């Protein structure tokens, strides 16, 4: 449905919000929610997959502002410290350190007690179907929904080994059908790219993205992100080595992308991310066609690399900007 043709949503009308999967791009959905709040839209239910489940859960719990401010204070080195290597297992990281940080930040709410109805969507690989998590510990549900295969280990909830909800429901529109909302707003993380294929990634101020932090790719920051600063005090030497390797791979990938060296040759992380993005984009298009929302807010699919969570400030601003454009075009 074109924005111009969308039915007007009154500020007092109950709205369901669908937040999509997209790795670090999912942080743009914080800005989307800020734009909706600025217009006093009455969001009564939220459903999210993967990073959309993380943002949506924090919003439903009333902790989104706390999370945003926490993100603003984190450097790339701080982000890497939150990764705990899953040695001898089928994925790179366990995710326990990250979830512990979130519990300390936002407490341990239960989904059924949240002021806004919330559904986290995960996937049961054995049964090959979606799982809607609508009760129980919030962080158990979020941890299951963000379990990207190969990145985070699967997570067991109610006896099921669950993985990333984005595998089957990158835009979980169906998960809002149990809500009392009259209208539906969806945030699609696979919008039209901001730049032509092969062009260097650039920030809003026009400077190239090199190491994911400083405008010109500060060398000292790159070294801190890839070297011993990331793992200082880590007694697990094998885990420390993995973090150094992972940080170095990220740094090299960013520099090569910014300088146009990876136009025809993808590194491992970028190949995995683009493959997953392609699959999720196609599924999301089908869901949007079969069950069109009243409004779709689209985040450009090239806004950042899937792991660049340290670019929170820039991504949140982008989400607010895209939401305002869509809302203005629809007359809200």
Task: Explain how this protein is built.
The protein has 332 residues and is an alpha/beta fold. Helices cover 38% and strands 15% of the residues. The protein has 10 helices and 8 strands. It has helices at 28-38, 51-60, 64-72, 76-81, 96-106, 138-145, 219-226, 237-258, 268-290, 312-329; strands spanning 14-19, 42-49, 117-124, 129-133, 155-157, 160-164, 183-191, 295-300. Strands 1, 2, 3, 4, 5, 6, 7 and 8 form an 8-stranded mixed beta sheet that branches. A hairpin with a 4-residue loop joins strand 3 and strand 4. Helix 1 packs across helix 10, helix 2 (51-60) runs antiparallel to helix 6 and helix 7 (219-226) packs antiparallel against helix 8 (237-258). The two termini are 15 Å apart.
Question: Keywords for this structure?
Answer:
332 residues; 8-stranded mixed β-sheet; 10 helices; globular
| Rg for CA atoms | 19 Å
The fraction of residues assigned to DSSP E strands is 15-25%
Helix share, percent: 25-40%
The sequence of SSEs as H and E is: EHEHHHHEEHEEEHHHEH
Quote the distance from N terminus to C terminus: 15 Å
Biggest sheet descriptor: 8 strands, mixed
Number of helices: 10
Q: What structural category characterises the helix and strand content?
A: alpha/beta
Quick recap:
This protein has helices at residues 28-38, 51-60, 64-72, 76-81, 96-106, 138-145, 219-226, 237-258, 268-290, 312-329; strands at residues 14-19, 42-49, 117-124, 129-133, 155-157, 160-164, 183-191, 295-300. It has 332 residues and is α/β, with parallel strands linked by helices.
């Amino acid at each position: 449905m074109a924005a111009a043709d969308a039915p007007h949503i009154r500020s007092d009308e109950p709205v369901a919000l669908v937040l999509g999967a997209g790795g670090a791009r999912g942080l743009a959905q914080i800005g989307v929610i800020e734009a909706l709040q600025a217009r006093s839209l009455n969001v009564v239910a939220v459903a999210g997959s993967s990073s959309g489940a993380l943002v949506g859960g924090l919003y439903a719990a009333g902790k989104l502002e706390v999370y945003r401010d926490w993100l603003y204070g984190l450097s790339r080195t701080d982000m890497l410290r939150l990764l705990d290597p899953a040695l001898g297992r089928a994925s790179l990281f366990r995710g326990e350190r990250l979830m512990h940080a979130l519990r300390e930040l936002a407490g341990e709410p239960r989904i059924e007690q949240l002021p806004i109805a919330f559904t986290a969507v995960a996937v049961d690989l054995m049964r090959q179907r979606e799982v809607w998590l609508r009760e129980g510990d919030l962080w158990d549900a979020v941890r299951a929904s963000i379990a990207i295969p190969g990145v985070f280990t699967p997570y067991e909830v109610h006896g099921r080994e669950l993985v990333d909800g984005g595998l089957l429901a990158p835009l979980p529109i169906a998960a809002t059908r149990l809500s009392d909302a009259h209208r539906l707003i969806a945030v699609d993380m696979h919008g039209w790219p901001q730049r032509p294929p092969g062009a260097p990634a650039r920030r809003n101020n026009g400077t190239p993205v090199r190491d994911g932090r400083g405008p010109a790719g500060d060398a000292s920051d790159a070294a801190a992100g890839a070297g011993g600063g990331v793992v200082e005090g880590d007694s697990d030497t094998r885990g420390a080595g993995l973090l150094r390797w992972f940080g170095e791979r990220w740094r090299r990938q960013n520099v090569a992308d910014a300088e146009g060296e990876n136009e025809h040759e993808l590194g491992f992380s970028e190949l995995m991310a683009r493959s997953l993005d392609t699959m999720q984009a196609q599924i999301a298009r089908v869901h949007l066609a079969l069950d069109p929302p009243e409004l779709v807010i689209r985040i450009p699919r090239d806004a950042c690399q899937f792991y660049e969570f340290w670019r929170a400030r820039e991504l949140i601003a982008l989400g607010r900007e895209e939401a305002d454009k869509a809302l203005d075009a629809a007359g809200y």
